[in-house]
Design goal:
The chain is an all-alpha fold. It is built from 20 helices and 4 strands.
Length: 882
């Protein structure tokens, strides 16, 4: 292969041309390409070597692959067409799916873009933007305004028509009252700014249909007032935005003018050959928000996809451009014009700053004609330099004028922006005041609505409570009648029970009295269950517990009857008593037990009825109390509602006061605060300021007097020094010694001096000619020396090549010797380092001692300087004393 051979040849070509000495000396322009080629070879030699190595490796790899392919069978290179078509179909499906997803995503983004633009951009009548100052840290933002809806406009027209009618009716009533009373009354009394509650009228954007703050009472009036105040806010914002847009257009125009001036300044600076950076202002994105909706090609990082139709259209357009260029007319005349007159009909004015006057042939004139020519050349050069300087000054003045014009124009815009900022503050203050009015009106409407809802709620609740009370009253009447009837039945049962007790002895009149007494005791005797029942009856709490437990009376009565049967047994019959009498006694006692049981049941029922009736009466009283409370709440709501209608919120503008208190505590105590007029404090501050100015003026006057004294002393000292220097110079001039030549020149006449000067000039010319000959000989000798040096350099290059071949062996030997001699050298180096460190330490100690001595000397000199300063510059107290 020819790779190594070509590489060697190239390396030989790249080697420096020092091996053969040049036979002639080329010029700078002839040697510049060779020097550039040499620099290029030195700079990119490593890169070229790597590229050659890479190309060689690639060539070997390709040849190896070719050799391997020659040995492989032919079927390894045949493709499966069916498998290929299957993969292509799968690939096409995947591409279609991905394309559909991308298109769907693009459609979603387009939809979101349309929604956002429609709701957040197109619906906005005035977009929010800024204006930034050129030189100040000031920026002003306009008011963002949405397009008013049709409903808002209709409401505004309705309210204005209503106010027109109300104002016409009020005017007619006022005129009628004036006619009846025979008095003259001012129909339109202008309100003050403090009573209007805002500065919108001062700005000239008030609505003539706005209600007086003291006449806004009803809810409809408040709603109408809110609509009118919103219209006032809209007018203020619209008027400010108009001024804002005018200033924005002015700034855009000024930016264009600044760009034109900078272009002219660059041309002038190019003519002056001055390279300086110019101030080039620009508009920010916040000042031009429309730029946010425009996407530049530089912002798109992805590669642009070009369809087949677009590619064909681009090729067709390029072909049309080529055909159009080919069909153009011959431009030979234009080329000749460009070549002769720089492409213009008129001759360009020659650049004065680049104009040069050719020098004469002889720079050292020897004859009179040459001297005249040289003097004429110098005069022309001087005149040209004056013209250049004048032209340069005019260009610099023009540049400065343009820059000053730019500064003045931008400062004018900044001043207008500052005024607009002040106007913005006033408009914002007026808008905030109107919004505060709207907030108060909305709050009053909400409170009115809340009270109305509370009134309706309390009214419904009162109606329900009255109906509930009526039901309770009717039920009480019914229960009282039922209780009365039941009480009569209970009284009758109790009377019957008492009759049974009284008729006991009458029923046993045929029995002896002793037996009757025993029987009466048995008649009164009750079983244990009955005793427990009696205890329960006597204790109401036990009765209540018994009732709550829910044990039925029938079970207790059954148990009692069983116990009575045990008592009616014949074993309990007294001795000597007839069994028939005992049976009659048992029947009578059983009737008595039944009667007592009925009385107790009736008593329990009566107690329950009375308790239930009492609960109903308590419920009636509670209902009556709730009704009274609801009546009180309704009266309170009515009272608050009337107070809200009468005591309306009025916004009043007052002057801002001033509180002068120590703010050290977290809470300020205003109990000992004195209220006084602000003018008094202003006068006191003015007096303090005047006294301070007088004191400062006196101190400055004293300082100036002291400064004048020191200045006079210094000038006196300077004059003395100058006088001494003049005395020394006069003494030196008297002692000055002149040489013989200087004495001769002093005593010779002017003609002799000229002849002597001409002789010296001839001598110098001869010396100059001799020096030129000597210089030419030296140049030829140097050329021969250079040739010898080049030959010697070539020989040395050959020797260097031989030494470079021997260099690896020598380096190996040096490494072995260094490895052998390194420990010994290390010990010697340690001793040398120790001595060096010792010398450094000794030197540092001596330097520290010298520094300490110098520090003491400086302290003494500083004290002496301070003493002299105090002596030379007395204090103000000494001045007062003197």
């Amino acid at each position: 292969m020819s790779g190594p051979t070509s590489a060697d040849a190239t390396e030989q070509d790249e080697s420096p041309g020092l091996l053969c000495a040049p036979h002639s000396h080329p010029t700078w322009s002839e040697g510049r390409p060779e020097a550039a080629m040499k620099e290029d070879n030195d700079a990119y030699s490593e890169l070229k070597r790597n590229l050659r190595q890479t190309i060689k490796e690639l060539r070997d790899a390709v040849q190896q692959i070719v050799c391997e392919n020659e040995d492989l069978p032919e079927q390894n290179f045949n493709l499966n067409v069916e498998e290929q078509s299957t993969f292509e179909a799968i690939l096409e499906q995947e591409v279609t799916r991905v394309r559909a997803e991308i298109q769907r995503d693009i459609l979603e983004k387009y939809y979101l873009y349309d929604v956002l633009q429609r709701e957040c951009w197109d619906s906005v009548k005035v977009k929010s933007r800024l204006i930034k100052a050129f030189h100040l840290d000031v920026e002003v933002q306009n008011y963002r305004l949405d397009e008013r809806t049709q409903k808002q406009l209709e409401d505004l027209r309705r309210v204005e028509n209503t106010r027109k009618l109300e104002m016409a009716v009020a005017l007619n009533d006022t005129e009628r009252a004036v006619a009846l009373e025979g008095q003259r009354v001012e129909l339109h009394k202008p309100e003050s700014v403090s009573l209007m509650g805002s500065f919108s009228a001062q700005l000239g954007h008030s609505n003539p249909y706005i209600y007086d703050q003291f006449s806004v009472i009803t809810a409809d009036q408040r709603i109408n007032q809110i609509i009118l105040l919103q219209d006032v806010i809209y007018r203020i914002k619209t008027a400010f935005n108009t001024e804002f847009e005018a200033l924005h257009r002015q700034k855009v125009q000024e930016l264009k003018r600044v760009s034109d001036r900078n272009q002219l300044i660059r041309e002038l600076m190019r003519e002056l050959e001055v390279d300086a950076e110019l101030w080039e202002p620009s508009m920010a994105d916040s000042e031009c928000p429309e730029r946010l909706l425009t996407v530049d090609d530089s912002e798109i990082q992805a590669e642009k996809y070009v369809t087949t139709e677009q590619r064909r259209e681009e090729e067709r357009r390029k072909l049309e451009e080529l055909s159009h260029l080919a069909a153009k007319e011959d431009v030979s005349r234009g080329k000749a014009l460009d070549a002769m007159m720089d492409g213009v009909i008129e001759v360009k004015k020659e650049d004065i700053l680049k104009k040069e006057i050719p020098p004469p042939e002889c720079l050292v004139p020897s004859t009179e004609e040459e001297k005249k020519a040289y003097e004429e050349y110098e005069n022309k050069v001087k005149a040209l330099n004056e013209v250049k300087e004048t032209h340069k000054r005019s260009l610099e003045a023009e540049i400065k004028k343009l820059q000053n014009s730019t500064q003045d124009a931008t400062k004018t815009v900044d001043e207008s922006l500052t005024k607009l900022l002040e106007k913005k503050e006033k408009c914002t203050l007026a808008i905030n005041q109107e919004e505060l009015k709207i907030t108060c009106l909305v709050e009053s409407l909400l409170m009115d609505e809340e009270m109305r809802d509370l009134e309706l709620k309390l009214g419904r609740k009162l109606e329900k409570m009255e109906a509930h009370k009526d039901e309770i009253v009717e039920e009480l009447k019914r229960l009282e009648e039922e209780l009365k009837v039941f009480h009569e039945a209970y009284d009758s049962i109790v009377a019957e029970d008492k009759i049974l007790d009284k008729d006991f002895r009458k029923d046993f009149f045929d029995v002896p009295n002793a037996v009757v007494d025993v029987l009466y005791k048995l008649f009164k005797r009750r079983p244990w269950v009955q005793k427990m029942r009696a205890q329960i009856d006597n204790n109401p709490s036990l009765l209540q517990d018994h009732r709550l437990c829910g044990s039925p009376s029938t079970d207790a009565h059954g148990k009692m009857l069983k116990a009575m049967e045990d008592l009616n047994a014949p074993e309990n019959m007294p001795r000597g008593l007839n069994p028939s009498v005992w049976e009659r006694f048992c029947v009578t006692r059983r009737a008595k037990v039944e009667s007592e049981h009925q009385v107790k049941l009736k008593a329990l029922t009566l107690a329950e009825m009375q308790a239930f009736l009492q609960r109903r009466r308590d419920g009636e009283q509670a209902a009556q109390q709730q009704i009274e409370n609801l009546h009180e709440e309704l009266e309170s709501v009515h009272r608050e509602k009337n107070e809200l209608l009468i005591d309306t919120m009025v916004q009043v503008i007052i002057k801002q006061g001033q509180v002068e208190l120590p703010d050290t505590d977290l809470t300020v105590d205003y109990s000992k605060v004195v209220l006084y007029h602000r003018n008094l404090a202003d006068r006191l501050r003015e007096h303090i300021r005047m006294l301070g100015d007088e004191k400062i003026a006196a101190m400055e006057k004293r300082k100036d007097v002291r400064k004048g004294i020191i200045q006079q002393e210094w000038e006196n000292k300077v004059l003395r020094e100058k006088m001494e220097d003049l005395y020394n110079k006069a003494r030196s001039i008297k002692m000055l010694r002149l040489s013989e030549e200087q004495r001769d020149m002093i005593h010779l006449s002017k003609k002799d001096q000229n002849s002597r000067m001409s002789k010296q000039v001839c001598t110098l010319e001869k010396s100059l000619a001799f020096m030129e000959e000597t210089h030419l000989k030296n140049v030829q000798q140097r050329i021969r020396t250079i040739e010898q040096i080049n030959k010697h350099a070539a020989r040395k290059a050959k020797e260097t090549a031989v030494l470079e071949q021997q260099l690896p062996d020598v380096q190996l030997k040096v490494a072995e010797l260094r490895h052998i001699c390194q420990p010994t050298a290390f010990e010697e180096n340690e001793e040398a380092r120790a001595e060096e460190r010792f010398s450094i330490i000794a030197e540092m100690s001596s330097l520290k001692e010298g520094a300490r001595a110098q520090e003491q000397t400086l302290a003494v000199l500083r004290a002496e300087l301070e003493r002299l300063t105090m002596r030379n510059f007395p204090s103000l107290d000494q001045l007062k004393h003197h």
